[in-house]
Amino acid sequence: MTTIELKKSIILRIAEIEDSEFLKAIKTIIDSNQSDAVFKVSEPMKKDIETGRKQIREGKYTTREDLEKEINAWLKERK
């Protein structure tokens, strides 16, 4: 089956679908395949990102290992 035949077949099948949830799922799949989609970052998000980068540069963060130790210690206290 050629690409054109496949597209026509899919279009015909989609045209027959009445289930709106299923159509939404198909739309999600199609939308996720767009390679030219650009994620836009708002000004507040840019500020938060820069704040986070600054905190990392200044060593103001917790490693995963340290966080796991802290959680485990907390859980032991709760027993």
Gist of the model:
By secondary structure, the protein is mainly alpha-helical.
Uncertain runs with pLDDT below 50, 5 residues or more?
Answer: none
Number of strands: 0
What's the mean pLDDT score? 91
Which range does the strand content fall in? under 5%
Number of discrete domains? 2
* Termini separation: 63 Å
The level of helicity is over 70%
What's the story with the biggest beta sheet? none
Description:
By secondary structure, this protein is an all-alpha fold. Helices cover 72% and strands 0% of the residues. The chain has helices at residues 3-16, 20-32, 43-57, 64-78. The chain is elongated, with a radius of gyration of 24 Å.
Task: Set down the secondary structure blueprint.
Blueprint lengths: L2 H14 L3 H13 L10 H15 L6 H15 L1
Provide the descriptors you would attach to this structure in a database record.
79 residues, 2 domains, mainly alpha, elongated, 4 helices
